[in-house]
Amino acid sequence: MVKRLESGSPEVRVAVTAAIKAAENAGEAIPFNDDSLRNLDTRTVFTTAESVQTESGSAPAGVAVAWLTADKTRLEAELFVHPEVRRQGLGARLTAALRNYASENKAALHLWAHGESEAATAFLGALGASRMRQLLKMSAPLAGWASCSADAHIDELEKSGFAVASFNYERDASDWVALNSKVFADHPEQGAVTLAALERYTQTDWFDATAFFLVRQEGRLLAYAWLKLTSSEAELYVLGVAREIAGRGLGKKLVELAKAVAAERGYAELTLYVEGDNAPALRVYNSQGFVPVWRDGLYLLSR
């Protein structure tokens, strides 16, 4: 039996937190992405009736987190079954509940496989699923980058006729949302970031306006590089260049600036996420020493 939890209920947090803890204890990928965790109160969550005992008490043995995309054509979901009770049909039951929910909404069901482990891909293969997207996590070492300061990279950009400044919400928010939506018009998540969503980002623990650079020319916003700096990781969270100026080396210069900033702040490497079929971006990142270290796949299930 599978039940749908009330959105935003305490049960949702308990189930998701327990699943994350179980995955970490098993040395597996966290089954839910940052966007799901940040918007958990608006997600649709299913759990199995079966439970397992955890350090904090009883928790559902299986959990699925789902959401409709902005255009309502896809239901995307993340699914986790506790390692102790796998191969007992719980994943199939959760998938059946997701299929029904997708059908109710006239949407195509897609499942994420974070890390694309052998077990996950085998499960999806048995369901007849086909991969539609691959998201790569890439990493580059920063040894030696601190020798060329971030200020030096900014000076180089300004000598080329650009004005570089750290993000200021009142001055930059609307311009950034407008440019970001154009740069990522074909990207289902990044291109959908609204002004309200940007404001929520600025309230996160990791947000640092001094690590969010905007590049203008004659007052017009043309590019940006936004770093997410936590206690354990420096990530080039998002980089965008206006399409009319793309291909002229500005993206490469912003990657170099991001590497210098991360190195100056004591990080040993810089990470980023990129679509596996984004050939222009991959060429830039490969030239800057980035290599894939992780893969997430999005799989379409036949109706």
Separate helix tally: 9
List the uncertain runs: none
Distance N to C terminus: 21 Å
- Summarize the amount of helix as a percent range: 25-40%
Structural class: alpha+beta
Describe the structure.
The protein has 303 residues and is α+β, with helices and mostly antiparallel strands. It contains nine helices and 14 strands. The strands form two sheets. Strands 1-2-5-6-7-14-8-13-12-11-10-9 form a twelve-stranded mixed β-sheet, sandwiched between helices. A hairpin with a 2-residue loop joins β10 and β11 (220-229).
Q: Which keywords apply here?
A:
elongated, alpha+beta, 303 residues
Map the helices and strands.
Layout: E1 2-4, H1 10-25, H2 34-38, E2 44-48, E3 51-54, E4 57-60, E5 62-68, E6 74-81, H3 90-104, E7 108-114, H4 118-126, E8 130-141, H5 150-159, E9 163-166, H6 169-183, H7 195-202, E10 212-217, E11 220-229, E12 234-241, H8 250-264, E13 269-275, H9 279-287, E14 291-300
Parallel strand pairs: 6-7, 12-13
Antiparallel strand pairs: 1-2, 2-5, 3-4, 5-6, 7-14, 8-13, 8-14, 9-10, 10-11, 11-12
